Amino acid sequence: MEPMIYLVDTATVEPADVDPYLETLFGAVVPVMERAGAVFEHCRTTSDDLGRAVDVEVTWSFADNATWNAIRRNLVLDVEWHVCADVLGRLRRSGRRRFLRPVAR
Amino acid sequence: MIRRFETYAFLPGVPEDGRRELARVVAETDRYIPEVLDNWAGWNGAGSDAELVWEHAFESVSAYRRYMVHRYHAEVLDRYVLVDSPERIVETLRGAGLFGYSCPGAPYRLEHGARRVVLLQLERSAGPSEVDSLERRLADATREAGGVLSVLARNTMADRWYDGVTRLPMPVRFTHVWEQGFPSGEVMRATDVGRVLDDPVVRRTSELAYELFS
Question: For position B83, which CATH number holds?
Answer without folding.
Answer: 3.30.70.100
